[in-house]
Write a structure and sequence with these properties.
The complex is a heterodimer of chains A (568) and B (427).
Chain A: H1 10-13, H2 18-24, H3 62-68, E1 84-89, H4 93-104, E2 109-113, H5 129-134, H6 136-157, E3 160-161, E4 167-168, H7 170-194, E5 198-201, E6 210-214, E7 217-220, E8 223-232, E9 236-238, H8 252-255, E10 264-268, H9 272-283, E11 287-291, H10 303-315, E12 319-321, E13 326-331, E14 337-341, E15 344-349, E16 351-354, E17 358-360, H11 367-370, E18 393-395, H12 406-421, E19 435-437, E20 443-447, H13 450-457, E21 460-467, H14 470-475, E22 481-488, E23 494-500, H15 504-516, H16 521-526, E24 546-548, H17 554-565
Parallel strand pairs in A: 1-2, 1-8, 2-5, 8-18, 10-11, 10-16, 11-12
Antiparallel strand pairs in A: 6-7, 7-8, 9-17, 13-14, 14-15, 19-20, 20-23, 21-22, 21-24, 22-23
Chain B: H1 8-11, E1 23-28, H2 32-43, E2 48-52, H3 68-73, H4 75-96, E3 99-100, E4 106-107, H5 109-133, E5 137-140, E6 142-147, E7 150-154, E8 160-170, E9 174-176, H6 190-193, E10 202-206, H7 210-221, E11 225-229, H8 241-253, E12 257-259, E13 264-269, E14 275-279, E15 284-287, E16 289-292, E17 296-298, E18 331-333, H9 344-359, E19 373-375, E20 381-383, H10 388-394, E21 400-406, H11 409-414, E22 420-426
The chains are: A alpha/beta (568), B alpha/beta (427).
């Protein structure tokens, strides 16, 4: 017996058929009218949308289910009856957003999700998804916890002194973090309930828990549900390459829930996850070593930011091993781990973590059988409206591997709900999406990197500021801040904005509005600063650090204009 | 430039193009507005002189310092103290994130003050270099206006220097205002508050503006008992009412004792060297320090403005038009002395636009629309645009208000009770 089931909303399911709809709204409709839902309690027969919430306490019986699964039509048969207008697989950021909004637009929606666990697998997950349970949220809490050591150090310069150096108790942090996750997953379940979305928790079982049977039918633990539309939003999971000893390796899921703090940890990977964890463990006083295949961390980010952040992280004690590929992990007699790389072996690690990418969770969903196309990474291929190769099947979020960020999954889910249930086909827009890396010091960015800007615009003007913030002049610590504006030389529009330093993520959110709106350097300069802050630097950059001119012949014409615009 | 005596002939010179002036621009006051105007004017080719009182953290009629209020006894030292005070709350919160910190963490006030002083001295030096690098001639002394094109600088040793200038810019800023109640000499202003020798274990703050709120937060953050007395129902009059309530709630949450609709009627010294402050409700508050954060007034008294006929408003501020020009064509004024929007970045804007207008041939008016600013209470408040009340008043139609009140993620684990509120009135 499935748990916390709510009954489907009859009126919306049949809403496509005007004749039936009229009949159901008549007061004296007999229960025995050719009604496949005969076994349902009386209260459900004449139920307008506003009564949807009261349905949440009723369970429906097996008989109903059997009747509903009879249909296996592949087409968009409007007169056909489905259990739900939308069935969503995966209750993470994208799935919950799409489901909630669809329900608010009048659709009958069900969503299924694996039972909760801090570690994800084929059989475990949890309402809220990666972001809430094994990503953004716990990550941020850990970052907060780990920042305090730096703050204690800073405070010395401001007159604070500690008799004993503060020490950190890992188990307190884990307990408080887990309590917060439980609270949040409960909130997400309530959000779904309050929106009238039916939540189906698939019971953990080895093998498939949920599977798409045909373009309109989903199987959850043997139960089948039909839906006019199916949304796949199962997200992604950490990927660890198979090398000798990889069974000793932990991924980010495990790293967020360790029984004890690592004393010495090797983090393999150069992306944002690797850097964020490096900062977390370093802040909590572990000995941290980061191994990357490339020359620099954060491939794809602005070059100057890549240089700046690794320098600042090194200064805080993190050791980087560049151009080293992992080859094997060895466990010694005393339990410590060694990492063998292309350049040698480093010993004595209590933990080895691989942050070597994430892959979409598309296995065992029945996708191939039903005809949903995947790309070579296993991500579901979708068009601009998030529709897959099968007309009634859609996908949003990390499983489509577009821009793997929670707010983007929210955007994709919201757009889909509008497209399907508001009669407003809406394409998510990926231009000028801001993002952050919560390493220490953190990074905030929106728009293009300098390299991308040169590709797209040819001629660009670059303004940078690299300074010691006020706090550091007193703390005496070597903290610095780096800020950068990239303009299209021709239009003077700010096409890229980057910052690395304390509060960058908060600061960049505000400026992202300006970049998205296509504002120019003059607009920035006309904006008065807030003083004293670091962010005011963005509106007081007077002299370009450099001007890139692809075509030398454009130099003469634009030179005086750019000089004037730069306000020199 | 050698010392010059006043020459009647030159004062009466009417043909500006033929007149030989000692300076194209003479600026009185080397604070945010004055330094900005001087540097930019010099960059546009003007010959610029500037005068400023000798440096001292606590200002008076005869001491000030290059950098002005912002650098020496405003924005910068204030922010430093806010940083210092913020650690208190952070250390508390750290415990819930697993950090084991001593029950009582020690705080060395003198160390913080010394660091603050080192920093403002450093900045004072930087500002002097900025002026020198721009080719601006700096004079130390008290500046006065003698005529539409004549200034006088009284140096420390009493000698007077006289200079003629095609344009004169008044940028003397403002000073803390003390209310005159019996015992007022026992109270301090923000100048002294930023340089207190001893940390006040108990402070009484009189005032409801941003300075009062900031100091209440600073001292409370460092562990003092703080009583904040203000005349209205809520502090920060003029700000959005909803935000004022949030600030008040947060102050209370952090342990500041709020006394709304309260004024002080007198101050008396007690036997053990403390101060007894009596409120208009008849309550007595015993404090180590009483801070009057009761407004700031423009520094125009000793400028001898009457000599040139420069008009002031009722508050004593220099009256200027949209180009920052006074009623005397050759005399201009920027910054707090004009009492428009008393913020450093606005003074910078006014100084920049002045330089563009007068020396770059591009008359430009500073734009006061949508100037953002912050109150560095703990936690801070930041604002841009209209308050809800202003929006309702000024709107041509209806307004929509969006608000978001939440417990920020950090506090869900730390247990701190601050609330975060964002408010967006839309026309």
């Amino acid at each position: 017996m499935a748990s916390s089931l709510t009954s489907p909303k009859l009126t919306t399911t049949i809403s496509s058929s005007p004749a039936l709809q009229t009949l159901f709204f008549r007061k004296n409709l007999p229960l025995s009218f050719s009604n496949p839902f005969l076994s349902l309690p009386k209260t459900l027969t004449s139920v307008p949308n506003r009564y949807r919430r009261s349905l949440s306490h009723h369970h429906y019986s097996r008989g109903f289910v059997a009747a509903a699964s009879a249909d296996s039509d592949n087409g968009a048969d409007l007169s056909r009856q489905y259990d739900f207008d939308l069935f969503t697989i995966g209750a993470g950021s994208g799935g919950v957003r799409a489901s909630r909004f669809a329900s608010n637009f009048g659709a009958s929606v069900a969503i299924c999700e694996l039972p909760f666990s801090t570690i994800s697998s084929e059989t475990t997950g949890g309402v809220g998804g990666t972001c809430v349970l094994r990503g953004c949220v716990p990550k941020k809490l850990m970052v907060y916890a780990s920042k305090y050591s730096h703050e204690f150090e800073e405070s010395n310069g401001f007159g604070w002194k500690y008799d004993n150096e503060p020490t950190h108790d890992w188990s307190t942090l884990m307990a408080n973090k887990n309590a917060e996750l439980q609270r949040l997953t409960g909130i997400y379940k309530n959000i779904l309930k309050n929106s009238g979305v039916t939540l189906i928790e698939g019971r953990g079982k080895v093998g498939q828990c949920k599977k798409i049977v045909d373009p309109h039918t989903v199987d959850v633990d043997g139960r089948r549900y039909s839906a006019r539309h199916i949304l796949i939003s199962v997200g992604g999971r950490p990927f660890i390459p198979e090398i000798p000893g990889s069974q000793y390796v932990i991924d980010s899921d495990a790293a967020l829930d360790l029984p004890s703090k690592p004393t010495k940890i090797a983090i393999v990977g150069g992306g944002y996850i690797a850097l964020e964890f490096a900062g977390i463990f370093n802040g909590l006083k572990s000995d941290v070593h980061v191994f990357i295949r490339q020359k620099k961390v954060l491939r794809g980010f602005d070059e100057e930011i890549r240089d700046f952040v690794s320098e600042q992280m090194s200064v805080r004690g993190i050791e980087f091993h560049t151009e080293e590929s992992p080859q094997a992990i060895l466990k010694s007699a005393d339990g410590s781990l060694s990492l063998k790389t292309s350049k040698g072996t480093v010993e004595g690690f209590s933990h080895i973590m691989f942050a070597t990418g994430r892959r979409p969770n598309t296995r065992n969903l029945g996708l191939e059988e039903v005809g949903v196309k995947l790309n070579k990474n296993g991500a579901i291929e979708v068009d601009e409206y998030s529709r897959t190769s099968v007309p009634s099947i859609w996908a949003v979020g990390d499983v489509t591997d577009r821009l793997n960020l929670t707010p983007v999954a929210l955007m994709e889910g919201g757009a889909l709900a509008k497209t399907l249930f508001q009669n407003e086909p809406t394409k998510p827009v990926y231009r000028a999406v801001p993002s952050a890396v919560f390493c220490q010091p953190p990074i905030g960015q929106v728009g293009l990197t300098e390299e991308q800007a040169i590709q797209e615009y040819g001629d660009i003007d670059v303004f940078t500021a690299n300074f010691r913030p006020l706090k550091a002049t007193l703390s005496g610590l070597p903290d610095r801040v780096f800020m950068k504006l990239i303009l299209s030389a021709k239009t003077q529009k700010v096409v890229g904005l980057h910052m690395c330093g304390e509060d960058s993520p908060e600061i960049v959110q505000g400026f992202a509005v300006a970049v998205k709106a296509g504002l120019t350097k003059a607009d920035f300069d006309a904006t008065v600063g807030v003083h004293p802050t670091a962010s005011e630097e963005f509106v007081t950059m007077r002299t370009p650090t450099r001007k890139i001119r692809k075509d030398p012949s454009s130099e003469g014409k634009t030179d005086s204009e750019t000089k004037a615009a730069a306000g020199v | 430039m050698s010392r010059k005596m006043l020459n009647d002939g030159e004062v009466n010179q009417t043909n500006e193009d033929d007149a030989h002036y000692d300076f194209d621009l003479f600026v009185i006051g080397a604070g945010s507005g004055g330094v900005r105007a001087s540097r930019f004017s010099a960059n546009f080719g003007a010959k610029v002189g500037i005068c400023e009182l000798p440096f001292h953290p606590i200002s008076s009629e005869v001491v000030g310092g290059v950098g002005g209020t912002c650098v020496i006894r405003g924005c910068v030292p204030k922010k430093i103290l806010v940083y210092g005070a913020s650690f208190g709350g952070e250390i508390e919160d750290a415990r819930n994130y697993g950090w084991e910190v001593n029950e009582k963490v020690d705080f060395n006030w003198k160390k913080l003050l010394q660091k603050k002083t080192d920093e403002i001295v450093r900045l004072n030096g930087i500002y002097k270099r900025l002026l020198a690098n721009a080719g601006v001639k700096l004079f130390e002394g008290e500046g006065k206006i003698v005529g539409p094109n004549e200034v006088e600088v009284i140096q420390l040793d009493g000698t007077k220097l006289s200079y003629s200038a095609k344009h004169i810019l008044i940028a003397t800023g403002s000073r803390a205002h003390r209310i005159s109640i019996p015992g007022q000499e026992l109270a301090i202003t923000s100048d002294e508050a930023l340089s207190l020798e001893e940390f006040p274990k108990h402070a009484v703050v009189l005032g409801g503006g941003y300075i009062a709120v900031e100091f209440a937060s600073i001292w409370r953050g460092l562990g003092a008992t703080v009583d904040l007395c203000f005349r209205k129902e809520l502090p920060l009059r003029g700000f959005d009412d909803e935000m004022r309530a949030v600030v008040a709630r947060n102050l209370e949450g952090r342990g500041v004792n709020l006394h709304p609709r309260t004024n002080l009627t007198k101050l008396e010294k007690t036997e053990d060297g403390k101060i007894k402050a009596t409120t208009d409700h008849g309550e007595d508050l015993i404090a180590d320090v009483v801070l009057f954060a009761t407004g700031r007034v423009p520094n125009t008294k000793r400028l001898n403005l009457e000599a040139a006929g420069v008009e002031l408003d009722e508050a004593g501020a220099v009256k200027v038009d949209e180009y920052s020009r006074t009623n005397i064509p050759s005399i201009w004024a920027v910054g707090d002395v004009t009492n428009r929007m008393n913020l450093t970045p606005v003074a910078l804007m006014e100084g920049t636009f002045f330089a563009n207008t007068v020396f770059n041939g591009k008359p430009s008016k500073p734009d006061y629309r949508d100037v953002p600013y912050a109150v560095f209470s703990i936690p801070p408040l930041s604002v841009v645009g209209l308050s809800e009340e202003q929006a309702i008043e000024q709107a041509h139609g209806d307004i929509l208000v969006f608000t978001s009140t939440f417990n920020p993620m950090k506090n869900t684990v730390s247990g701190s009770r601050d609330s975060s509120v964002c408010s967006r009135p839309i026309r």
